[in-house]
Protein: Beta-lactamase-related domain-containing protein
Amino acid sequence: MKIYLVIVSIIISLSSYGQRAAADIDRIIHREMKERRIPGLQMAVVQHGKIILSKSYGVSNVQDQVPVKSNTIFPLNSNTKVFTGVAIMQLVEQGKVKLNAPVSEYLQDLPLEWQKITIDQLLTHISGLPDMLKLFDPLTGSVGALRTEAAIWEKLKATPMEFKTGEQFSYNQTNYYLLGKVIEKLTNQSFTDNFKEKQFNPARLKNTLFGDSRDVIPDYAPSYSYRNFFDGKRIDGNKLANNYYEFPDFSRTSAGLNSTAEDVAHWIIALQSGQLLKLSTLNQMWSPGKFNNGKDTEWVRGWGIAKLRKNHKAIGMSGGNRSALLIYPDDHLAVIVLTNLGGSAPEDFVEELAGCYNPDIIKADALTYLRKNLQTIGYENAIDFVQKAKKGNPDFNSQETELNNWGYRLLTVHKNKEALNIFKLNVYLFPSSWNVYDSYGEILLKTGDKNKAIEMYRKSIELNPDNENGKKILEDIRSTIK
Structure:
């Protein structure tokens, strides 16, 4: 009888815990949807290898007020890259690819400067290759005037390298285009067929497919964004508009997948349970590469969010500034958020959602903890807050890139004062980085402080004499002051 009562007590306690977590999730989601003006959102939570929460909010189709459902399909955008990363690591596991091997070992017809670039350098975006995205139509993402893959390829090969391979990071679609070619070459099948056979089918994904705005996709959530609109008197940035975008078929290893939160959750379960990769290979994929100076890369292999902190490590990715996923291997937890609004940046609040299941996660992530507190005490107190937080917790550290990206996301939603203080904080934390001064100078210029902007751009150029863009902006500022 006592054992029975204990079991019943545990069941009731777990049920109450789950209900509290779900209520907290609802509160956060409703707050963020209101603040960010997100029309529709879909999310799922995986815990201990099972989907414990799957919820839909708002409308998927604003025009016809179609509600988001569990089978509503959202574009994954750059979250596609994690699937490409897994496909490459499957080939590594099979002995067909070596991470330190030059791409020229697998592909021919490459410019001389490209031939020594390794698979690892493609996965981690330190190749220095020119970005093929710059050759696409900026409005639609299509191949534009160049028309064909062959034309894009020839133009791309004639474009100079952006920097010396292995010296710096630059997010770049060409890297994953080449990885797609490696997959096709070594599997003797299209990457679309390879993904279906080696990932979608084993994970039993029912609503995951390649496509873009040209394709007819059932239960599809169109993509929206808020754009500036001139009504004849003033510029209004509150107009919701349809987004039209194309991912040329040959480039879809970088951003061509569409899926549901539940499907992504099933894929994560398959990934972590050994159905897609061995545990040793998974750990290798979730480890950073190396720059030429021996420092760790910002990306791990195929995954752009790598919070490799001492406690509550998190690996994930974001896509299109409108979808995000985070996996907490040590906590046996994962959170997926998909939205239909470009600029919604759910990566800002995913860790807070994870904190509904483990509150320590919020304290472990400096960015989430910082954001949550600055909303209360004011962004102008960012430096003071960080100083006090670091005294109490020496492991309280933010990454330069994280803060920089956060600042730019604030700019996209016209929170200039908040962005100004985040860029100022980044300069305080990383005084030897030329890029933080460049970004701080940019926001100072936007907010009208030209003299301070000049000071920041001078410091940026002093630290990096090759900052040609900074030199040009500095020259432009001076010409307006004269």
